[in-house]
Amino acid sequence: MSDLNNQSKAPTSRRSLLTWFTGAALAGSAAISALANFIFLKPRATYGQPSRYSIGHPDDYPSGARVSLDQRRVCVVRDGSKLAVISTICTHLGCTVGISDTGFACPCHGSRYDQDGNVVGGPAPKSLAWYQVTLAPNGELEVDTNNTVKQGTYYDL
Amino acid sequence: MSDLSVQVPEAVAPEAVETVDAKQSFAAGLAQFLPNIWHSIFRHPLPDSDLGASQTSVTNFFLHIHPVKVHKNTLRPLYTLGLGVMSFVTFVVLTVTGILLMFYYVPSTTQAYDRMLDLRGSVAFGTFLRNLHRWSAHAMVAIVFLHMARVFLTGSYKKPREFNWVIGCLLFLLTLFLSFTGYLLPWDQLAFWAITVGTSIAAYAPLIGSKIQFLLLGDKAVGQEALLRFYVLHVVVLPALVTLLIAIHFWRIRKDGGLSRPVEADLGADQKPLRVEIVSSTPAGKRTFGLMGFVRGPFTKVGNVPDNSVYAWPNLLVAELFVFVITVAALLVVSLLFNAPLEEPVNILHPPNPAKAPWYFLGLQELVSYSAFWGGVGIPGVEVALLMLTPYIDRKVSGVGKWFAKERFLANTLFITFALLNVIFIIIGTFFRGPNWTMVSPF
What we know:
The complex is a heterodimer of chains A (157) and B (443). With 157 residues, chain A is α+β, with helices and mostly antiparallel strands. Chain A folds into 2 domains: 2-41; 52-156, Rieske [2Fe-2S] iron-sulphur domain (Rieske Iron-sulfur Protein, 3-layer Sandwich). Chain A contains 2 helices and 11 strands, in the order ααβββββββββββ. Chain A has helices spanning 2-9, 14-41, and strands at 52-54, 66-69, 74-79, 82-87, 98-100, 103-105, 112-113, 119-121, 130-135, 141-149, 155-156. In chain A, strands 1, 2, 3, 4, 9, 10 and 11 form a 7-stranded antiparallel β-sheet that branches. In chain A, strands 5-6-7-8 form a 4-stranded antiparallel β-sheet, with no helix packed on it. The N and C termini of chain A lie far apart (91 Å). By secondary structure, chain B is mostly helical. Chain B has a domain at 68-263 and 311-352: Cytochrome Bc1 Complex, Chain C (Up-down Bundle), CATH 1.20.810. Chain B is 61% helix and 4% strand. In chain B, α7 (126-153) packs antiparallel against α8, α7 (126-153) packs across α13 and α14 (359-368) packs across α15 (372-393). Chain B is globular. Classes of the chains: A alpha+beta (157), B mainly alpha (443). The A-B interface holds A 38, 41-43, 46-49, 51, 70-71, 73, 92-96, 105-110, 122-123, 125 and B 193, 196-197, 199-201, 203, 214-215, 218-221, 223-225, 348-355, 365, 368-373, 375-376, 435-438.
């Protein structure tokens, strides 16, 4: 009895330390392989649409135009020499918004936006994204959907 | 050997005896050939006695899932309504039809929709199989929910069945996720936009939301990667998980003492639980134990307690067969009468107006139209957490095994309120929402 008490008070025995190490090693290996699975499942390259693409010459968009490029899910807005590209992906749940008289309207849950993409009604939590536009050396406009710009930031042609 | 030698005349040589012996035993062996095989598979014949019923149950792989005896209360149709077995039957039907459909399906954005048309046009029983798969999926969602409602309203999640309730909740969530992943596979307009909306809801989860969405879709938007991922989840990962959890669910029913039942069911009308006094040999003290406290398990009989159990063979088996036949018959009739919908092929440029999720998610979509975070993540998250933690919050043991027990008025009322609210939201989302999700009258 007294032996037993002494043992429980004694510093960690070799056996329990080894048991502890083994358990930690097994648990650690399991955790690492679970993590590896997640890394594997997260694609490094995607096969969908590129995030940078050309939308043609500035002349294709006359002043005052609001052209919805359905495939790209963006709307090109030109006002005089100013040009901007606004996303038409609803910020609510990812439906494609349509151009309406007052701006944009989403068919899925009824979100409504004004001409600049500000929310004016419905459940959308934030305004539509504005994408960065640059003029490529070949004279074509290039959109980068990875880079959003502040609302109202036009590209000066 | 000794019997044989009696019949043989003494004059015959010993070699001849052996020949006759060998011939006879060969013939006998031949006659026993098929019975030997049969009896090696089935150790016991069809039972004609209680002992036979136990032996047959225990020595058969499929039957030994059942206990040898079950409580009479388990077999009351109006107590369980057969909903658990019904859920399992729909899962079996879905597995069989799903595997058959896999022979003709290709998870490719260019081929999937054509394969749907092929199922309709050129595959024998193709339309029928797809109908059966689709309607069984809807049925499974509904029946699993009703099963959950039965367990809740009879207080059957209480000790010692707490963890089996949690597994049941996980099975319900997996059922919904299976339906959701299957929804994308036809690659029609309904599929594409329902999944676009559904995965965007996931993106509203705090911190990791958009990462979950990216992992689920394998891309920024629903496309080929998403179709392939949903396919793998739908045909391998989720069914495997469901199968594992069903096995644990069934196993635990027995380990937790069979289906729940009222306390009175185990006792005679005039009997109270037996109490014994155990006097400790050490002078430390005298404690009183409820005998039920340390004799666990459903059929341990102490004293003059009447036996309220019956043999699983044939009572339980006949009941299960009955539920199986009724369920399959209903699914067959519905699948012969109604065709599963198939809309236009995917057109990314034109979301249908309104874009609606499958009916069991329409309550959620209705909530989402008020607030994406609260409707899609906040409220469902709280609901699921409350549901799973119910047995750990509600620890009172009274009112178990009775429908709508008075002692459980509060819990039952809360559950029914939540369920009815969801049904109301589903009805609004299904019938009262028109273009741009505006209120319309269905009449």
